[in-house]
Amino acid sequence: DIVLTQSPGTLSLSPGERATLSCRPSQSVSSSYLAWYQQKPGQAPRLLIYGASRRATGIPDRFSGSGSGTEFTLTINKLEPEDFAVYYCQQYGPSPRTFGQGTKVEVK
Amino acid sequence: QITLKESGPSLVKPTQTLTLTCSCSGFSLTTSGVGVGWIRQPPGKALEWLALIYWDDDQHYHPSLQSRLTITKDTSNNQVVLTMTNMDPQDTATYYCAHLPLIPGASAYDTFDVWGQGTMVTVSS
Q: What pLDDT does B35 receive?
């Protein structure tokens, strides 16, 4: 199985700041098959990014994804209050589909 | 508008079989390019993909759980059913179903683009 390692575990930032989240697969993943999800307490995950850099429908452009191979990044520009949440990366190349352990973005 | 809703028991005993139903609306399970998957999340932990079924009945399972899982479609009711045998306290989790579009060129191709609200299942005697 491909293990996805997310860092940092927790990111403490203030509204208006930029968040940079990392996702490192244990083996190379095609950029076509890397997604990011946002999850708030008590809610289901919400798809933000697919294909490493494509925003899902309705996702604000302050969210952007980049990367390839064994290093991917989710960037959130100018954090809004509603962006404080847990973020998961997921690969959907080789089966089984796997998720990272998550990065919590919290208010500093 | 695509929506999914999970239903099933909130409490099962160890060794019992869990049956969960995902009721789908806004799309048909028989439409080419449609998939529905199940994902679970133990309390305070990360997400884990379990199983996936496509419009053509092609089924995929997480290898470590394959012997315990069965995913099927009830097309007359537009529902997807997941059964998990020999439940253990470590299976305590929120179980989600999610829509997956597999239409080349479509938005969110091959990802879980719409999720149900989830259903919490506790395994305890």
A: 96
